Amino acid sequence: MGRGGWEWVGRAGRLGEGAGGVVGDHERAVGAVRAALEPLRDAVVRRELDALPVGRLSEVTEGRLRLGSVEKSGLRTVGQVLDAGPYRLRQIPGVGQRTADQLLAAARRLAEAVHETAAVHIDPDRPEPRTTALVRALHVLVEAGPDAQRAVAAAAALTQRLGPLLADAGPAAGRFRLLLAGREKKARALAAVAALRSLVAEAERAQLPELFAQTSVDLLRAVPSDLAAWVDFELRSAEYYGLLAEIAGRPPDTAAAEGFLPEEIAERVRDQRLDDTHRRVSLRGYQAFGARFVLARRKVILGDEMGLGKTVQAIAVLAHLAAEGHTRFLVVCPASVLVNWTREVGTRSALRVVVLHGPGRHEAYADWKERGGVAVTTFDALRGFPAPEDGEVGMLVVDEAHCVKNPAAKRSQAVALWARRCERGLFLTGTPMENRVAEFRNLVRMLDAALADALGEGDAVVGSVAFRAAVAPVYLRRNQQDVLTELPSLQHTDEWEEPSASDEDAYRAAVRAGNFMAMRRAAYARPEKSAKLERLREIVREAGENGQKTVVFSHFKDVLGVVGEALAPAPGDPVPVFGPLTGAVPAARRQRIVDDFAGVRGPAVLLAQIQAAGVGLNLQAASVVVLCEPQVKPTAEHQAVARAHRMGQVRPVRVHRLLATGGVDERLVRMLERKTRLFDAYARRSAVAEATPDAIDVSDLELARRIVEEEQERLGMTDAPAALTPNE
Q: Which parts of the sequence belong to the Helicase ATP-binding domain (predicted)?
């Protein structure tokens, strides 16, 4: 064996050191989270034990313990019993050694149960040293991102393969050692060197050495500051809580995360590989299972409740198929979410995005056919494209699939044709289907006609267990309460909408007039063609179908009037609408409206002017918040959202901010994010900011004038009048 053999052994050794290093760095980062978490969890456990009445000990022992004398002695909680210890307990009249031992054993069993279920809540509005330490520790792993998980998994697998080979190749590390080795050891060493050469070449082609090095750098990088960690937590709380649940060893119930699928189907799904090469986002456990379900079953409906990340799961599937060599995918969705889909695919994957919409859609279609990528189009535009040849499209994704439940509609017929021609199909809908068998059957028929026939006729109400068993081959649904083990998180979604032609006309008129406030509410000036209003209806409808309450905020009373008319309860759809809460409504009346809203069983909608309801009211009955337009003052949005996302909220709060592309909304968001994000986040925590929120906001007048002038220039309105003040 020549010098080349020794070099391969050396390269393999260095590769092994890099792999071992990244595994060690990750273990230390996880260990830091556990160390920061433990005192917080101990404090939660202690509070719960101090609140548990001593009578619960009798339940643990099935009534065998008599606790009257214990309570009379002043020990009234389980925590106090644990603190008392055996000596103090034996001093209580009627409590001997055996009873004391039983008391302590029962108390410890309760303490263990509480410890297993104790959840730590991270409150960004009340940071203290222990929670700051936890947020900083989590920040390291969140910042490292999915590449860190990929690197650690690859490093662990590589280390397992390298170890035995390096041991066998030991004699080949030096010329004299090889000469002195026996025939059998020499043959084993030479074979190991050949295997190491192949393994190292494979790892280098996959750029694993670079991945290991970069991951170690990411895991060892210091957090810039406490403030930076807290701001990032507020922006990505779901990722922090997801990591926390994983590290704390409190994953959701497996059956719930797997949608209560029959075991034989769930087992096949678990065995499905999921390639993350082209994916730029980490998946929660239930999301990874959902993506595997789609891959394993090929044509399915993913019916997860709103807020569980159906879009992310779909992108994970597309990324996997792209890694397998598929080149073309098609997403069909309502026009109101087309912009969101293009942004999500672009930011959460490395896949090319092609928009098939608008005047140039046919040219874009030809480009997609030639170069591939993820094409995104609308239900109406789909009808203008020829159906693909069999196998030409790797997957068809249909978002808001309940929109094609009517088989007589032309859009439904177009989708059905494409679904037949595609080997894989994924329908996404957050609308519960358990009690709508007829509608559900129509969707299933596009994917699996035989199963649709087996569901029978009619629209009978069936139990969820029986329903899920019948449709398990094609349907997976998880609810938030089943799979989110952390305390409620705050999820922000910017809903970018492409303005309709009518919206554009109203906006241009406002720009020409130099009216900043009219520009901000132009998207609602012509309700019959409003893109924002259409998306708002969809959000409220889906929230209602999931039994959730929604609060809709706007700066403008006339916008709330338009929204109220659009959401007015229709026959057979009695979702009540309360408000609007405005500055003209007396405070006592406001509270009565809020109480009535909260007192409704099931879904309801509350309309509120943001400056009137953003402070002082408790809106925790709502778990969905809609902001009709971006606010000039960041504090206005923070305070409004805080009315729902506060102590006592039992569900994750989802905030949808409606934004129109290409105009004042984009400029507002860009300016405010660039100039005030960190400063605003810091100032909100100070007493001065709470008392005088105006002190930390960009000047209304300066901002308005700047935006109006820039928009007039962009739209070529050089002869337009000067900008009006924000109140005009």
A: 291-450
